[in-house]
Specification:
alpha+beta, four-stranded antiparallel sheet, binds flavin mononucleotide
Length: about 180
């Protein structure tokens, strides 16, 4: 899939089929994270791939808007090493995670970023060392094609901005012509 096509097609998927994600697709997705840029090439990231249903259930339970993690066959937990890169670990992990999102889209899979989780619960459950922050989670799997009321509501409250609202030419507010 062409890059812009993947960017355009991607949307948050909050309902999944139980079909497992094939190993080669999962490896490709993780390779997309490995190849991401990072400040000074420090790569202050670590990703825990969770497929175990009981662990997914506990993670899902820890957040208000994370219930679909019981359904998505894979949850990728993005961790940032705050000691290795105090200034950029959060940004670097986010870049790597969005690389995974686009790679998964290219493989015909659905994804959803999840920020709604209890860091302490996830840390203890997955034995994540203290020097790491748990930055975000990523659901990955085959979309179930269910009506997404939460998604629709979020888009009603905050609609997608137009270019002119988010780009200034030459200076803040500079008109886009
Ligand atoms: C950092 C981050 C955290 C998010 N956390 C959640 C979440 O906890 N639960 C959820 O259902 N969606 C979550 N989302 C998905 C957003 O709601 C979604 O990206 C946004 O509404 C735009 O919709 P779209 O992704 O379909 O274009 C998160 C997205 C980002 C980038």
């Amino acid at each position: 899939m062409e890059v812009f096509e993947a960017i355009r097609r991607r949307k948050s998927v909050r309902a999944y089929l139980p079909t497992p994600v094939p190993r080669e697709k999962l490896e490709k997705i993780l390779e997309a994270a490995r190849l991401a840029p990072s400040a000074e090439n420090i790569q202050p990231w670590y990703f825990v791939v969770v497929t175990d249903p009981e662990r997914r259930r506990r993670i899902a339970k820890s957040g208000r808007f994370a219930k679909f993690l019981v359904e998505s066959p894979v949850v990728i937990v993005g961790c940032g090493d705050q000691r290795a890169s105090p200034r950029w670990h959060l940004v670097d992990v986010a870049i790597a995670m969005q690389n995974m999102v686009l790679a998964a889209t290219g493989e015909g899979l659905g994804t959803c970023w999840v920020g709604s989780f209890d860091e302490g619960v996830v840390r203890r459950l997955l034995k994540i060392p203290e020097r790491f922050r748990v930055i975000a989670l990523l659901a990955v799997g085959h979309p179930r094609g269910k009506l997404d009321l939460l998604g629709k509501m979020v888009h009603l409250i905050h609609r997608r901005k137009k270019l002119g609202e988010m780009v200034g030419f030459e200076e803040y507010g500079g008109p886009f012509r």
